[in-house]
Amino acid sequence: MTKDCSHVHGYIDPNWPRPDNSGSACIIIFGYVPSFTLGVLGVSLFALALLLHSWLLLRYRTWFFSTVVIGTLMEIVGYVFRSLASKLNPYSVAYFVGQYFCIVVAPVFYSAAIYSLLTVMINRVGAEYAPLRPKVILWTFVSCDVVATVIQVLGASLIGSAYSNDKDPNVPNHILLAGLAFQVLAYAIFLVLYITFIHKAHAALTPRLRRFAAATLFAALAVYLRTIIRLAETAEGLLMFLSTHEAIFGCLEFLPIILALYIFVVFHPGRYLAAKSKSPVFKPLVQLSEL
After folding, report:
1. Cα 3 to Cα 19, 24, 25, 166, 197, distances in angstroms
2. Which residues on neighbouring strands pair with residue 92, listed in sequence order?
3. 199-214 residue pLDDT tens
4. Transmembrane stretches, by residue range (predicted)?
């Protein structure tokens, strides 16, 4: 049975007829046909980062940083979904929800790794400089991220379902907005705690640890920028300017996460917070990190 899409407003690519199946929305929910080039670039860069971080994880045995590997795997899957939408069916609700779920959830694992870094640094430098106990910091903000992510994924799933069933998607968008607002607030509080610790412990940090702390802060701010943009995009409303221009996605979602991920390749915590391995493999990268 053909779906009646005459009353639905949104982006439709005149060069790409909508497939007549129940899994396709009446419009392209992305607001554009996703770029296949960006999809392949995302898969390639995240796959390379996955190899590097997996090697570094095994080399230094920094298991507290292992969530970066999980997040990077999810990013790869997310960009695979975007590539499939680009080539097979940009109207597909499954491709939209799949890429949204993976790309939204993945940074939560990066945040968890950053929370872990702060707790390890506190234990390394001294608890007297910490604004809160390390375990309290770790579990409080991990819990906040879990709650925020569940709310966001629920909202995104309901938005996809609403578009698929020709229902009003604005109510689930409010759910998504609530999850993002909570995440932005919680992350801001964490950044204040992180900066407070670095300020108090500045004299106790070695020059190498200061460089590492600065690199970690830069990566944390990159992840935060991406979260703020997601909040602004959702607050603006569905199918508005921010959500319907892929250049914004590329510059303010894709690029900040890639920067954060590769910062942690060069400034890996294994080189600063764990015992060094004698392995000579990948020596140039090790030497670069020790500059």
Report:
1. 10, 10, 9, 9, 57
2. 24
3. 999 999 999 999 999 9
4. 27-51, 63-81, 93-115, 136-163, 175-197, 209-227, 247-267
> Phi/psi of residue 125, each to 5°?
-90, -40
Q: Report which residue type is found at 9.
A: H
Burial class (CB in 10 A: 0-12, 13-18, 19+), 3: middle
Rounded to whole angstroms, the Cα distance separating 117 from 83 reads: 33
Q: What is the assigned CATH class of domain 36-275? A: mainly alpha
- Cβ(41)–Cβ(72) under 8 Å? no
Q: What 3-state class would DSSP assign to 92?
A: strand
Token pair in block for residue 99: 């890429």
More confident residue, 197 or 238: 197
Kindly state the tokens that stand for 78.
Answer: 């997310």
The tokens for 31 are: 């607001």
Question: What stretches of the chain show up as alpha helix (H) in DSSP?
Answer: 36-60, 67-87, 93-125, 134-164, 170-200, 207-236, 246-249, 255-266, 283-289
| Interatomic CA distance for residues 291 and 65, integer angstroms | 22
Least confident of 12-16, 18-22, 75-79: 18-22
What secondary structure letter does DSSP report for 24?
A: B
| pTM for the whole structure | 0.88
Reference 176, options 161, 165, 192, 197; nearest CA is: 161
3-state secondary structure of 90: coil
Q: Between the CA of residue 255 and those of 58, 91, 249, 262, 290, what are the distances in Å?
A: 26, 25, 9, 11, 25
Phi then psi for 24, rounded to 5 degrees?
Answer: -110, 135
- Which residues have a Cβ under 8 Å from the Cβ of 287 and sit 6 or more positions away? none
Tell whether the torsion through CA atoms of 130, 133, 138 and 144 is positive or negative.
negative
Q: What is the pLDDT of residue 7?
A: 64
